């Protein structure tokens, strides 16, 4: 059945694919509320309607809490049902097991950016990650607090060594490739590349480790690019040369230079890069930084782009293999937290059975439960009220006033000055500087991946495309969940779009703001047309047929995605350190969590900031002044 046909459910366009109408209907209850939100397709992430109330507050709408009575009381209210908010509830229950907790979230699903996507492909359930991708370097980056939380939930990271089939793509003869679009390069051409994942599988956004063999393969690959000889020679030099363009300077002097020029400036000034070369690398930083190469320092760019091989800057730490991945990404962590916080919400107790655990969303907000998770509820006001705190939230168009001894704001930190009364001016200014990065993760459920196999590719760079990268999912089998075994099996292809703004002289925050507007302006149809066009042009020569092979599409739209991470090109380190300290200070009985509070877009940071926020509450209750030292 052609995917152009639409079914409009509650105003959201959902593509009709080979998945049955009954299967889609099962994702919603009789009243139209989502019964199983992960199974919903179409435009998800910050789905239509989830941000309307918050945008009203941003634009000046005022909600008067005194106009409504206190409707409910708890010991703790948490605004934000992502991993940080859920972790805050978990830590609070450890310290104060008798306390009652209300968790509010504006979306119809919990987990924040740790979003699960489910597809029913001809009777088989396959999973995808709609946001937070993996547990990144748990042995070296995770604090004792974050590591203990994973362990307490039953996550045994050693199991990923076998769950993640590290030789899968090598066994199937697959590698990377680059696609050149004819609108820019004069011809549609798919150029096979050197292996990026390798036998031990690495981060697909990382620059491959160089050696003589890979250098030879790189030269052969670049020779096939539909680019000028001059551009190909420059790219080859960038990718393979061991020349030190800053020879004679100390590492400290080199870093000082590289901190204060963009990567584009670096390759233009020190490598002679032309506009053609710059355009080829323009999207390369999107996966990790969500910006173009003129908006990130050269020092922060290395690792994703070439040109640092001869600098000998040293590495901060050895990277762990990028294998710590659930089939639905870190949504499994959020689901395990909710299962622990709300008994009876889902069956099971292991990292294996969480993958097929069906959640009873009606059980998340049961009267009298010690922890209640209330979705589709947008906080619009928070304040201190004597010995208590109060939160106003809008649900079903109505303002509700709730009271608690303490409140944790684990929401987007940039919204805090709009909703929290009494924030000092310096703190409000610091919070507003945490501008989140926009990005879109698209999951395309395919009935098979024969075209990928025939072409010999598993991940594609698309330097002139709408989607800068396209890849087959990570090969993880865990418990009763089995990844595709042969090209005839269903699989998820993951596409990424980031709305960068190169060549406009915009700093990182300005690029993010421009990207917010662009993402909100794009419809599901806009994305679908781009998916159809680019997948057909890239995979069509391998026999791919969009209407026949695509079983479902979920567009995970995150206008406010990654937490802002400081870059020395735009942020003085001393100023930034003080900004971080001030931004997350408690305001009366209200504390602040979220990965935003750690100014870094990683799950371990979200957990650590939750632990700090609850520690501050514990200190308040002991009568000790809380600090931001943690």
UniProtKB/TrEMBL annotation:
User: Could you tell me the superkingdom of the organism this chain comes from?
Assistant: Bacteria
**Protein name listed in UniProt:** NAD(P)-binding protein
Its source organism is: Sphingomonas lycopersici
């Amino acid at each position: 059945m052609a995917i152009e046909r639409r079914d409009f459910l509650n105003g959201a366009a959902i593509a009709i694919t080979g998945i049955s109408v009954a299967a889609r209907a099962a994702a919603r209850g009789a009243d139209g509320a989502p019964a199983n939100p992960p199974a919903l397709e179409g435009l998800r992430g910050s789905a239509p309607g989830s941000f309307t109330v918050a945008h009203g507050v941003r634009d000046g709408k005022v909600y008067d809490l005194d106009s409504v009575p206190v409707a409910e009381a708890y010991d703790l209210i948490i605004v934000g049902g992502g991993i940080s908010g859920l972790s805050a509830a978990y830590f609070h229950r450890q310290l104060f097991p008798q306390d009652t907790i209300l968790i509010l979230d504006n979306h119809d699903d919990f987990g924040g950016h740790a979003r699960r996507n489910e597809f029913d492909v001809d009777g088989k359930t396959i999973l995808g990650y709609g946001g937070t991708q993996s547990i990144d370097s748990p042995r070296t980056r995770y604090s004792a607090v974050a590591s203990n939380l994973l362990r307490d939930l039953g996550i045994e990271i050693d199991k990923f060594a076998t769950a993640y089939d590290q030789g899968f793509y090598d066994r199937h003869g697959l590698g990377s490739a680059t696609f050149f679009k004819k609108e820019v390069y004069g011809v549609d051409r798919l150029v096979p590349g050197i292996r990026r994942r390798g036998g031990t599988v690495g981060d697909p956004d990382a620059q491959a480790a160089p050696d003589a063999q890979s250098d030879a393969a790189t030269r052969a690959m670049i020779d096939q690019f539909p680019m000028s000889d001059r551009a190909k020679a420059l790219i080859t030099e960038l990718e393979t040369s061991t020349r030190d363009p800053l020879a004679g300077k100390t590492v400290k002097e080199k870093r000082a230079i590289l901190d204060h020029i963009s990567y584009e400036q670096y390759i233009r000034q020190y490598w002679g890069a032309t506009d053609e070369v710059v355009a080829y690398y323009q999207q390369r930083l999107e996966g990790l930084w969500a910006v173009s190469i003129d908006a990130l320092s050269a020092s922060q760019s290395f690792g994703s782009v070439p040109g640092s091989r001869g600098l000998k800057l040293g590495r901060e730490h050895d990277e762990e293999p990028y294998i710590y991945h659930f089939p639905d990404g870190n949504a499994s962590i959020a689901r395990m937290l909710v299962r622990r916080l709300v008994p009876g919400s889902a069956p099971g107790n292991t990292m294996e059975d969480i993958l097929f655990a069906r959640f009873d969303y009606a059980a998340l907000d049961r009267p009298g439960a010690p922890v209640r998770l209330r979705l589709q509820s947008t906080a619009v006001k928070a304040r201190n009220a004597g010995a208590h705190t109060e939160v106003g939230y809008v649900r079903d168009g109505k303002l509700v006033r709730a009271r608690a001894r303490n409140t944790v704001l684990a929401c987007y930190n940039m919204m805090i000055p709009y909703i929290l009364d009494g924030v000092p001016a310096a703190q409000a200014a610091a919070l507003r500087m945490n501008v989140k990065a926009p990005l879109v993760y698209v999951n395309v459920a395919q009935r098979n991946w024969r075209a990928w196999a025939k072409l010999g590719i598993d991940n594609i760079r698309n330097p002139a495309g709408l989607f800068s990268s396209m890849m087959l999912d990570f090969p993880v089998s865990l418990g009763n969940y089995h990844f595709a075994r042969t090209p005839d099996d269903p699989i998820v292809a993951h596409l990424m779009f980031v709305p960068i703004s190169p060549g406009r002289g915009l700093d990182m925050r300005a690029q993010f703001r421009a990207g917010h507007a662009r993402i909100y302006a794009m419809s599901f149809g806009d994305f679908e047309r781009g998916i159809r066009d680019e997948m057909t042009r890239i995979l069509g020569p391998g026999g791919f047929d969009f209407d026949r092979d695509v079983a479902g599409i979920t567009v995970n739209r995150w206008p406010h995605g990654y937490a802002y991470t400081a870059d020395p090109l735009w942020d003085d380190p001393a100023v930034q350190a003080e900004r971080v300290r001030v931004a997350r200070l408690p305001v009366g009985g209200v504390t602040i969590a979220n990965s935003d509070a750690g100014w870094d877009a990683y799950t371990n940071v979200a957990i650590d900031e939750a632990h700090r926020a609850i520690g501050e509450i514990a200190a308040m209750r002991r009568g000790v002044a809380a600090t931001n030292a943690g």
